[in-house]
């Protein structure tokens, strides 16, 4: 049954390789321009394409700037009455890496600084939030945080929740993906038959959710989560977990599959993910909804991708336009409706997917709000 207590995504403040705010990011997506650039210093002796925030200062300072920006947009949100939920894959790992690789002293690395909880702890204390929790479930981290926020508000435990997805480019993470053989050494090509891996990226998305309907907001209609329990890195071959999460989201939203206008797919550009996600989408939705991956433009922001792509999905709803599926020449599944250019149309309902290592799957449905 769909909850009678509605949940709204009221505002967001984002930054990634594609732009320093959500408007810049969305315009870059509409142009289908990759923001991936060649970077050295992440994999020894190799230049590798990554999604790096242009002109980035200290990551935690940039994060605080985005929280400040969000609070300025939501004067009705009182931090002392609000919980902040943070989804991150690497937490403060980059701080430890910088010291380890010679920019500081190894003796002053503390658990508090580089733990997965460091983002939630620092943001919670600096801005005076009532409480702070951290989620680290690989690439579903901030989607799981969004799902938890949805539950808190729909069950009237909180009226306002701030969700943050934040991951900095980590040498450990980039090397890990490279050693697994799934880090592409060329611009990533989600859903293309020639795809060969991901472009690791960094990003920050700070979202305000509440039970209050405000101007220029969208509704979080429903969420679904599942676990494959199949393999630590490989998705279930028949996409059972992915389909379960999407089906749960539809049921929670009280919608059938034909209602979805646009699917913001996880679309990593790896051989396994794109083939299995494509087949799962075809089984549930057929050829009707537009299907894109934003990761050809932004790169894969790891634990931040769920929150960032929820904001991007909201922008599609608010602006009635769907970005193209960039870098796509020959689709792995020709049945799906992949737009090759920005497509103006009425966008009522968007499904946004995030899948991750460990077999985690999350799907979120966002909906347009019409004037009463």
Give a short summary of the structure:
This protein has 372 residues and is of the alpha/beta class. It has helices spanning 22-31, 59-73, 93-103, 111-114, 118-127, 141-154, 171-179, 240-253, 271-285, 295-298, 305-319; strands spanning 7-16, 37-43, 46-50, 83-87, 131-135, 160-167, 203-210, 218-227, 262-264, 290-292, 321-322, 343-344, 349-355, 360-367.
List the helices and strands and how they pair.
Elements: E1 7-16, H1 22-31, E2 37-43, E3 46-50, H2 59-73, E4 83-87, H3 93-103, H4 111-114, H5 118-127, E5 131-135, H6 141-154, E6 160-167, H7 171-179, E7 203-210, E8 218-227, H8 240-253, E9 262-264, H9 271-285, E10 290-292, H10 295-298, H11 305-319, E11 321-322, E12 343-344, E13 349-355, E14 360-367
Parallel strand pairs: 4-5, 4-6, 9-10, 9-13
Antiparallel strand pairs: 1-7, 1-8, 2-3, 6-7, 8-14, 11-12, 13-14
Question: What would your notes on this structure say?
Answer:
The structure is a single chain. With 372 residues, the chain is of the alpha/beta class. Helices cover 33% and strands 22% of the residues. The protein contains eleven helices and 14 strands. It has helices at 22-31, 59-73, 93-103, 111-114, 118-127, 141-154, 171-179, 240-253, 271-285, 295-298, 305-319; strands spanning 7-16, 37-43, 46-50, 83-87, 131-135, 160-167, 203-210, 218-227, 262-264, 290-292, 321-322, 343-344, 349-355, 360-367. Strands 5-4-6-7-1-8-14-13-9-10 form a ten-stranded mixed sheet, sandwiched between helices. A two-stranded antiparallel ribbon has the order 2-3. A two-stranded antiparallel sheet has the order 11-12. Helix 6 (141-154) crosses helix 11 (305-319). It is globular. The model has no long low-confidence stretch (mean pLDDT 94).
């Amino acid at each position: 049954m769909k909850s009678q207590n509605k949940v709204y995504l009221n505002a967001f403040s984002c930054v990634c390789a594609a732009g320093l705010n959500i408007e810049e990011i969305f315009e870059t997506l509409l142009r289908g321009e990759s923001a991936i650039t060649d970077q050295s210093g992440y994999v020894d002796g190799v230049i590798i394409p990554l999604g790096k925030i242009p002109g980035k200062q200290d990551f935690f300072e940039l994060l605080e700037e985005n929280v400040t920006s969000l609070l300025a947009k939501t004067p009705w949100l009182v931090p002392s009455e609000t919980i902040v939920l943070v989804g991150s894959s690497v937490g403060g790992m980059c701080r430890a890496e910088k010291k380890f690789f010679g920019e500081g002293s190894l003796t002053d690395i503390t658990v508090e600084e580089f733990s997965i909880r460091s983002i939630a702890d620092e943001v919670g204390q600096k801005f005076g939030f009532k409480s702070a929790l951290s989620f680290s479930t690989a690439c579903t981290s901030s989607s799981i945080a969004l799902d938890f926020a949805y539950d808190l508000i729909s069950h009237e435990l909180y009226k306002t929740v701030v969700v943050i997805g934040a991951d900095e480019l980590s040498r450990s993470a980039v090397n890990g993906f490279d050693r697994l053989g799934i880090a592409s050494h060329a611009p990533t090509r989600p859903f293309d038959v020639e795809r060969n891996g991901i472009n690791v990226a960094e990003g920050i998305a700070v979202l305000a959710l509440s039970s209050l309907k405000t101007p220029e907001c969208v509704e979080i209609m429903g969420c679904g989560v599942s676990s494959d329990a199949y393999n630590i890195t490989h998705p279930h071959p028949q996409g059972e977990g992915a389909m379960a999460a999407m089906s749960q989201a539809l049921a929670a939203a009280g919608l059938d599959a034909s209602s979805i206008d646009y699917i913001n797919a996880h679309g990593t550009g790896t051989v396994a993910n794109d083939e299995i996600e494509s087949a799962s989408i075809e089984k549930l939705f057929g050829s009707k909804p537009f299907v894109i991956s934003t990761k050809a433009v932004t790169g894969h922001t790891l634990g931040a991708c769920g929150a960032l792509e929820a904001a991007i999905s909201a922008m599609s709803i608010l602006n009635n336009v769907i970005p193209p599926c960039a870098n796509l020449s020959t689709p792995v599944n020709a049945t799906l409706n992949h737009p090759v250019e920005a497509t103006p149309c009425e966008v009522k309902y968007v499904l946004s997917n995030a899948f991750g290592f460990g077999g985690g799957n999350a799907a979120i449905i966002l909906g347009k709000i019409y004037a009463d």
